[in-house]
Amino acid sequence: xxxxxxxxxxxxxxxxxxxxxAVFLVDNKLKIAWLNRKAVEFFNTDFESALDxxxxxxxxxxxxxxxxxxxxxxxxPLECSYEEASVKVKRLNKRYLFKxxxxxxxDNHNLWGALIQFTDVTRFHEMEKIKTDFVxxxxxxxxxxxxxxIVGVEMLKEGMLGDLTPRGKEVLEAIGADCERLSxxxxxxxxxxxxxxxxxxxxxxxxxxxxxVNEAVRPLRIQAEKQGVELITDLPPELPPVIAxxxxxxxxxxxxxxxxxxxxxxxxxxxVRARQRRNRLFFSVEDTGxxxxxxxxxxxxxxxxxxxxxxxxxxxxxxxLGLAIAKDIVMAHGGEIWVDSEVGEGTTFTFTFPIYRxxxxxxxxxxEPKEDN
Length: 373
Prior knowledge:
Layout: E1 22-27, E2 32-35, H1 37-42, H2 47-50, H3 55-59, H4 63-74, E3 86-91, E4 94-107, E5 110-120, H5 122-157, H6 166-196, E6 205-207, H7 209-217, H8 221-227, E7 230-234, E8 242-244, H9 246-263, E9 269-277, E10 280-287, H10 322-332, E11 337-342, E12 346-354
Parallel strand pairs: 7-9
Antiparallel strand pairs: 1-2, 1-5, 3-4, 4-5, 6-8, 9-10, 10-12, 11-12
């Protein structure tokens, strides 16, 4: 086993044949300098013949080249989304899903190459699909009886089944509010199931920004007035149209404004803005609420995560799906979403959409990683 090509800084004791992951060491020309037993077995090769081969050629995974170049240019471990760092590989009539991790290796401060690690997440992916399918079925089963309850409540409120006492009206209002909350939860679960199953579809078209913002904000103005919160829209007069799915975009903005209202006290303000920067339009929802603690800000776009205010008294009132869904929809448009917040000063959520220019259309990324051959 010839190891003379490896710098002294590399300890092969860390890369043993007992690892369940396939591991490669490649130089800065993408040539294989070492691989472990799992890599030999999975990629159907032998150790000696694999040495000095191009890792792209041996694995057949074309996206590796771009990921490695990214690491070499930045001199840092691979940082990208789960989808970008995942790859499907077919071996012996079975499909595998691997998550790729890449770490640069330096020799006397000079970039020598990288360590590539393939972690088999096939089973995890299968379990996620089972969970997603279950959530979808349960959501559909809840929808029918809930609709019946909502219709019955509306009939009672309208007096179609007799007069109600003041106390009876209060009870029905409470039932109706809980039904609406449960209906929103079911909608979110069904949308999440579609996203996770890879069936999210954004029907994009040139969209007027003012129409989009006003459609999202209009139904929430009455609620804002009741809470004593001022709801402001700040839109320059000549914004270009964006490439967007109108209904899903309205949902994103309405969800962000609704979240802001839950965390903003009477007398506070919520401002919805849109600004153009080069070929992107930046939408933001800014509130003067309690703010989000810094340690929670990197978690809020994950599923089923709820963050309380710093006084631990305010909760979102949902199950932590809205922001996760919003992020997936924004990414399906080719955009980004993030949060800026200071405790006691307020929070601003911002997301971007591409601007419409002539006949161009949005670049919609795939929901699942493509298979590389």
